[in-house]
Amino acid sequence: MARINVLPKNVAELIAAGEVVERPASVIKELVENSIDAGATAITVEIQRGGVTYMRITDNGCGISRDDVPTAFLRHATSKIKTGDDLNNIGTLGFRGEALAAISSVAHIEMLTCTKDEQLGTRYVISGGVEQDFFETGCPVGTTIIVRDIFFNTPARMKFLKTDVAESNAVALVMDRMALSHPEVSFKFIRDGKQTLTTAGDGKLSSAIYSVLGREYFGGLISAENAQDGVTVTGFVCKPVLCRPNRNGQFFFLNGRLVKSGTACAALEQAYKNSAMVGKFPYCVLNISVPLDTVDVNVHPAKTEVRFTDERRVFNCIYYAVKSALAAGDTRPEMTLDKKPVNRFQNMSVEEFRQTVIKETPKDEKTVPVFEEKPKTNFSLSDTKKMLFDETPERLSMLNSSKKAEREEPALPPPPVVEEKCVEIQDEKPPVKYIGEAFKTYIVAEQGNDIYLIDKHAAHERILFEQIKKSAKTERQMLISSVSVPLQKNEYNAIIENPELLSIAGFEIEDFGIDTVLVTAVPAMLEGADIPSAVREIAESIIKTGTATLERIDDIFHIVACRSAIKAGNLQSAEELSAIAERVLSSDDIMYCPHGRPVAMKLSRREIEKQFGRIQ
Ligand code: ADP
Ligand code: MG
Q1: Bridge-partner residues for 143, per DSSP?
Q2: Is the CB of 35 under 6 A from ligand 1?
Q3: Is the distance from CB of 519 to CB of 531 less than 8 angstroms?
Q4: Is 0.70 topped by the overall pTM?
Q5: To test ligand 1's pocket by mutation, which of 19, 26, 33, 37 has the most ligand atoms within 8 angstroms of CB?
Q6: Residue 368: CB partners within 8 Å, gap ≥ 6?
Q7: What are the chain's domains?
Q8: How confident is the model at residue 141 (pLDDT cuts 50, 70, 90)?
């Protein structure tokens, strides 16, 4: 072994810098966080060539007083905490005192800073951790930091950088997240001379979302808020029909810091269960606030995972925020008609008109206006307590009493019993008039000033699903002769290992041995349906669904609803169809089929009259 040496300061700094400074985006994150901690209300970031050659961050924060400037660049130098106890109460984004030291050890830095108490500001230049220049200079209150040639002294690190475009994109993402988490700050981002982001800094999350994520994203949002057990959730979630094929649109902020949290994500998605299509994910911008001492931020600086001391409270608060937002703010998708000129000849010259008339066969369908689905938005969270939870108190207490199932499911606690029965306060709905059926698939009905197309099978399935959720336990049917169902080994195990689950769903099943079960009772609605295949399907779903109890039960209800819908055959009579229309349109709980497809679409009288040219 060679002799043991204490590494020179600059080498130690280089090693430490590796932790904090991975790429230009991580520099921007640290420096913008410093600006926010300094109380800035306006922050401008400019980068060139992905930030590799040039980054400039300007803020109007408190600045650093001259004597403190060199200290700020030392490792473990911070104004944000003093003692170990302070670590339990971190209210700033930074606290490690590492960023300036780390960045200055791998780049050329120039800082201009001035506090409100100083006549003159300070210019400080430091390169590869070595001070180059330090003098008074005139500059406004606040701080500007210019970082040039990152990794100039560590070429090995340069090699890990991606293309300039990829590095720029990574910086842009950091800026987006900063802007979303701090609507009270006005951000500007200039990328290779082009300003690509500006936020108002008016303190409104909605303005920040509009600027950062664009009109389309913004247009699909419903506001969500809730406060319970010391946790507060505010923000926006998307309408279920707009769910996306991935989770990229999900933003969770905890006390102003972007976080990844399995609990938050699970609570969000659980609240969309049976409203969002299978395989699609909701998007959201949700701010979660918890008391500072109930969260551990002291994880790796570059990591965003977060741990709460009480995951269940956070889960519940988010779950109910989202659930009530969806109940209050979701509306049926609305159809608009194509905005083609009604009179297709009106813009033609006389000659064109003549030619067209000569050429055309009388049957031209091309100009018939087309239905186009365009979901209507509703941002306002109605201040009435209009909460339509799917879970009835009876059902939830059934779930809670299922001890075994709960033990299996630590990550996804079922929401607690809702103490008060949630009341539905809504305006009286106008009567529903059944008009007819189109394409043997859609019910056409009129209500007030709207015409609805209702997907009869989707609606029927959802109606049965809601019915069985409410009545599974009470409306079970003993079978006159029990049905024996031979199963595959794993199906058999899934069934006999979950007696409570099946009993909640309305089944009574006995173990017959030799991979066979005996069904003695079924949910009343299933009587006369193909019971063996329903049991097999349930077994498969239990195998597939992993551990979440709520989901498993919903899946079983869903299977029962599907089966009894099949049993009902192809609904045809006007009475049946009219009853479905009545059920769907008389309240707002039948919005989506259990797979998350919309059940009904609305076409307003106004839209029709516009198209006929009766109104403008
Ligand atoms: P930390 O943010 O963890 O405290 P940094 O190395 O990022 O550590 O910054 C060191 C100190 O320099 C901060 O604690 C703060 O006092 C000061 N500082 C850094 N950037 C700014 C800024 N933009 N405005 C005012 N003070 C700043
Ligand atoms: Mg910092």
Answers
A1: 59, 113
A2: yes
A3: yes
A4: no
A5: 37
A6: none
A7: 5-198 (3.30.565.10), 220-329 (3.30.230.10), 350-407 (no CATH), 433-600 (3.30.1370.100)
A8: very high
